[in-house]
């Protein structure tokens, strides 16, 4: 069976994705910052749980060296928002910088560290869990910190889709929907189950033509 590596799998969309891929018999490498407290994740049968803070560059390299098997799908899911959002006049620059580390630099680092694992796999897919809030085409204002980190992640997607095309590695961005998680809140439009299942279908149908594109969780294209 294929192997998926998921970051930020302790809760929310990452946790539900781990659950659904494991249920389908995939080998699931689920990463989270604190396995000790990730009781829901550890309760899923057949998932191997690994401690990983994606902003720790050395730890990402060390983890990659410890993984011997090919990785068919790398799901760069770990992410944060700025709470409360700041803007003109009250920006928290340290928090904005930290947000770039998690939402933009870390997915790039994960791809860098796992590119050989992807090359050796059958499917060779990277999905960067972005947000429609990172769409420049769709933005009128507000949430500059979060939006800018996801817009920059989208550029990482586009650049690496080009850089890795020769190796057959498919890289795309995906908006998971507005999802009822700690980040999305209780009023959000869809459940983690719907989001994870939708993105899984997108992965299943992703061929070379998906690379360098930006999808909604249901497979529709989103304007950059
Ligand atoms: N929910 C939505 O409506 C929505 C909409 C658009 C995009 N997204 C994106 O979807 C992804 C998942 O979001 P979610 O809704 O599931 O959010 P969530 O419930 O807040 O979960 C976020 C996950 O990311 C992990 N994480 C945060 N910083 C990390 C780090 N430095 N290293 C490793 N893991 C880290 C968290 O781990 P801890 O438990 O250790 O904190 C947690 O597992 C994010 O990239 C988010 O931007 C969500």
Could you walk me through the main structural features you see in this protein, from its secondary elements to its overall organization?
There is one protein chain. With 224 residues, this protein is an alpha/beta fold. Helix content is 39%, strand content 15%. The chain has helices at residues 12-23, 39-42, 57-66, 93-119, 144-163, 192-205; strands at residues 3-6, 27-32, 47-51, 73-76, 125-129, 170-175, 214-216. It has a 7-stranded parallel beta sheet, sandwiched between helices. It is globular and about 50 Å long. NADP nicotinamide-adenine-dinucleotide phosphate binds at residues 7-8, 10-14, 32-34, 53-55, 77-80, 102, 129, 131, 175-176, 178-179, 181-184, 188.
Strand-and-helix sequence, N→C? EHEHEHEHEHEHE
* Contiguous runs where pLDDT drops below 50 for at least 5 residues: none
CATH class identity: Alpha Beta
The strand count comes to 7
Name the beta content range: 5-15%
N/C terminus separation: 33 Å
Structural domain tally = 1
